[in-house]
Amino acid sequence: xxxxxxxxxxxxxxxxxxxxxxxxxxxxxxxxxxxxxxxxxxxxxxxxxxxxxxxxxxxxxxxxxxxxxxxxxxxxxxxxxxxxxxxxxxxxxxxxxxxxxxxxxxxxxxxxxxxxxxxxxxxxxxxxxxxxxxxxxxxxxxxxxxxxxxxxxxxxxxxxxxxxxxxxxxxxxxxxxxxxxxxxxxxxxxxxxx
Length: 194
Description:
Arc Repressor Mutant, subunit A, 7 helices
């Protein structure tokens, strides 16, 4: 991703390029589109990020119709430079293959210290959580049949990633079960268990 925008800044800027919005509306769209599955933007950070984008000249306050009742909200839209920066950073984010650092890999790297029954239980909990997450994201996607294609692609990408992990996890749990059925003093690789 281009170094000039953080992932959180690019996410908000992209939503503002799509349509001028106020902070509360940004939070709603982030929730509705399931963006919290892949961003770390909390409600409290939205206003901080908006201030950063404004201070960098990438967004500005726009005139918006006032609500008949309630507090007037500041609505932001992109500047011309904001649109250019968004396009550059979005293109780089699509094109660049970047490593991810999932904590599960750290756990697997330290798997020998986990007693086998506790490892199986942890993997079972992960499998249950994956099943729940897939169902929740699928339901969120299906509840919005008229979203633009790029929004559907985000849901589908997330579901594809989760399905790939689910496939890996099923195979790994089966492999561990097979190893567990072998002699308790020597595993398939010939090493003594810890």
